[in-house]
Amino acid sequence: MPRLTLIEPKDAAGDAARILATAPINIYKGIAANPEVFTAFIAFMRSIATSGAISKAEKELVMLYAAEQRHCGYCVAAHTRVAAGAGVNGERALDARRGRAGNAKEQALLDFTKAVMDKNGGVSDAELAAFRAAGFDDRAAIEVVAAITAMTFTALYNHINDTVVDFPAVPEVTHTA
Q: Is 70 exceeded by the pLDDT of residue 85?
């Protein structure tokens, strides 16, 4: 049972009304209780989605790993579904949540994501060099940080709210990297 106010689509105004009309998911209904934050959140998520510094699939791998590390069941379920639409199958999504990838480039991406999260951004020169050597640039590094930031915000919100998961259930991870 959610602990914070939810805005139903029929009660929403402005940006929230437009977005909830097509995506009435529980996290959006909750964040819409603060219209200014909701508008900024949606804009931030759109900027991450359209940046193009990393592919949509790569972005979802980052978000899945970050969601798992933030212990956010809602985020994991939602981004497993989004990842499927970006071509990431269930096993690949599960591996990403564990910090494992099926190829060297994606492994470098997840290793960099792990380093950023574990060290609060204080990655070493060697970690940044490995990320770049895998074919990523500075824009990609910024996009990784943005994706982690989005997952941190949503995880914290979902923990406070106890957001009801309105996405298909996903398997538990038995081990994370």
A: yes
